[in-house]
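quick one before i forget lol
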Amino acid sequence: MEPELFEAWMMKILVTILVGFMAFIVWDLAKKSKAGRFGTLILFFVLGLGVLAFVIKEVVIAYIEQGR
């Protein structure tokens, strides 16, 4: 297996695991701080924006590389 392919797979897999772990941390934080439904929604919305930015970056990179 080529190192570039391995790095690409690991990037996607490990970032997915990291996002899942971050979601667990945010859920636990919201639960322990008694943030309520609205506070929990805000916490997950902010986390979701970060994840969305990462996904958009990957899509833009794939689009640019496809155009070559």
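fyi The mean pLDDT is 90.
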